[in-house]
Specification:
26% helix; alpha+beta; 375 residues; HSP40/DNAj peptide-binding domain; four-stranded mixed beta sheet; single chain; Helix Hairpins; three-stranded mixed beta sheet
Length: 375
């Protein structure tokens, strides 16, 4: 038997827009919906027929092939493209958005023989680490509340030897269908709360919920090089799943606290070293302490200016997004004493007379340097 033209089935022209095709299908789906025509085989066939036409014409590529080759181009020679031969639940699953529009945002409920496993929720927690800990890496104890599988019923929610049963009110669908004039509505069953099943003999430990809330602690390793705002995913440490579903994950957001002596710039570790004026003028070697307590010797060149960046390669943070490490960046500054002995004042005065009171560029003269000391 030759198949009817898909455009004819939906009652639209071959130039119809996607919105016009969808609107036509909505109209037919509402007219021939099985919930409005219980036991009507003819309406069910028309419903499937409309679904088959919509499946092809709503897809731009399938529609183009159909317009060019007809039913043969979309599997017509093999006895139908596919939707016409699907069962009703498959059609509702494939076009849930359409039926949601028609019937109040809910798909047609499928019958349930018992509880369906559901994955547990992911959990989120903030943790604080010092800048030193982010440099060296550390371990931290995590304490939190979460759901774990009930050890009495092993996540089944029932007493040993018993099983859930289909809800007698909704027959396992989770919904009760009512009609009011032209419209139908399907509220959740009040007996099972929309689950489609009841547990006559719930587990005494979890009251049929299949899991219990507990206070838990465990140690987590914070890797060296962790940066502020980073998120660590701890697989399986979220809430346990419901009725045998998989556990969610725990996400730890890392807040790196500020340090009075060091700061992080990308993967570099930066600090300031205070030097005397003679050290800057004559040059010197200075030993400094890194954030992890190790010692580093840096060389101060002769005539070193304030704000000079001295790089100690490979002594910064480990690179989490690559290999190697950043650098330790030491920035020079001058330690200006607030009090001077009389002898020191005399020496600085003589030095000032010796080198003059203006710099070569005439700005910010060295006289300002000594006036700060001498007044």
């Amino acid at each position: 038997m030759s198949k009817k033209d898909f455009y004819e089935i939906l009652g639209v022209s071959r130039s119809a827009t996607t919105d016009e095709i969808k609107a036509a299908y909505r109209k037919l789906a509402l007219q021939y919906h099985p919930d409005r025509n219980p036991g009507n085989k003819e309406a069910e066939e028309k419903f499937k027929e409309a679904a088959e036409a919509y499946e092809v014409l709503s897809d731009a590529q399938k529609r183009k092939t159909y317009d060019q080759f007809g039913h043969a181009g979309v599997g017509g020679a093999a006895g139908g493209y596919g939707t016409h031969n699907m069962n009703m639940d498959d059609i509702f699953d494939n076009f849930g958005d359409i039926f949601g529009d028609i019937f109040g945002g809910q798909k047609r409920a499928r019958k349930k023989n018992g509880p369906e496993p559901r994955r547990g929720h992911d959990l989120h927690k903030d943790i604080n680490v010092t800048l030193k800990e982010s440099y060296t890496g550390t371990k931290q104890e995590i304490a939190y509340y979460h759901f774990e599988v009930c050890d009495t019923c092993k996540g089944k929610g029932t007493k040993p030897g018993t099983k859930p049963v289909a809800c007698a009110t909704c027959k396992g669908t989770g919904q009760v269908h009512f009609s009011q004039g032209f419209f139908m509505y399907s509220p959740a069953s009040s007996t099972c709360g929309g689950q489609g099943f009841t547990i006559p003999s719930p587990c005494s430990s979890c009251n049929g919920q299949s899991r219990k809330q507990v206070y838990d602690k465990f140690n987590v390793t914070i890797p060296a090089g962790i940066f502020d705002g980073a998120e660590l995913r701890i697989a399986g440490k979220g809430d346990a799943g419901i009725y045998g579903g998989s556990s969610g994950d725990l996400f730890l957001k890392v807040n790196v606290l500020t340090d009075p002596n060091f700061k992080r710039v990308d993967d570099d570790l930066s600090c300031t070293v205070l030097l005397t004026y003679p050290q800057l003028v004559f040059g010197s070697q200075v030993e400094i302490q890194n954030i992890d307590g190790t010692k580093e010797t840096i060389k101060i060149s002769k005539g070193c200016p304030i704000g000079e960046r001295i790089i100690v390669a490979g002594k910064g943070f480990p690179k989490l997004r690559g290999s190697g490490r950043g650098n330790l960046v030491v920035i020079t500054n001058c330690d200006i004493p607030k009090k001077l002995s009389e002898k020191a004042k005399e020496s600085l005065t003589e030095y000032s007379k010796e080198i003059g009171t203006t710099t070569q560029n005439g700005s910010g003269g060295i006289s300002g340097f000594f006036k700060k000391f001498l007044g």
